[in-house]
Amino acid sequence: MTTVSSVLLAHLDELLADEFHRFKWYLTEGKLQGINPIAKSKLENAKQTEVVSLMVKQYGSSDAGKIAVRILREIQQMNLADQLKKKLAEAQDQAEEVSSCVSTVAQAKVPAQAPGAKGVTQSISAGTSGSVKAPVISGSTFSGPVNMTFN
Q1: What pLDDT does residue 17 have?
Q2: pTM of structure
């Protein structure tokens, strides 16, 4: 699954050294209206990966992406800003699909075994498309602990 951090990193990697330096400048000292600046000392020697981590930590994933788009526009990287905006929307859609599947699976009532019955293991997985493929269980009542692992 594509994450906001990986999308941001891929786009920051496209900047030349001088452009990346200007990008970081906008993150410091409140150069961009409406954002809390990141300390200059943290950004001074930061590489792209560190800048992405600092942005996500400071602003959260969603806002970090929006701020990056704004800064790219400020440094006249319009095409890169448009590409980033599109990729962020795709990453958000993927995250919503996965979240929806996880929610659906988590809400499913998985009945426990009858006393003395042998154990049953069920594996349910969702691909990047967000679909869950699992056998249908019907007409049964389960009680007891149910463990679900999501990777």
Answers
A1: 95
A2: 0.62
Name residue, tokens 């990287």: 77
Question: Exposed, middle or buried: residue 12 (CB in 10 Å: 0-12, 13-18, 19+)?
Answer: buried
> Which of 93, 77, 89 is closest to 12 using CA atoms?
77
Distance CA 108, CA 137 (A): 10
What distance in Å separates the CA atoms of residue 129 and residue 27, rounded to the nearest whole number?
A: 35
Answer whether 83's CB lies under 8 Å from 23's CB: no
Whether the pLDDT of residue 105 is over 90: the answer is: no
**What is the set of domains in the chain, with CATH numbers?**
4-107 (1.10.533.10)
CA separation, residue 18 to residues 10, 22, 26, 151 (Å): 17, 6, 13, 39
CA 5/CA 22 separation, integer angstroms:
20
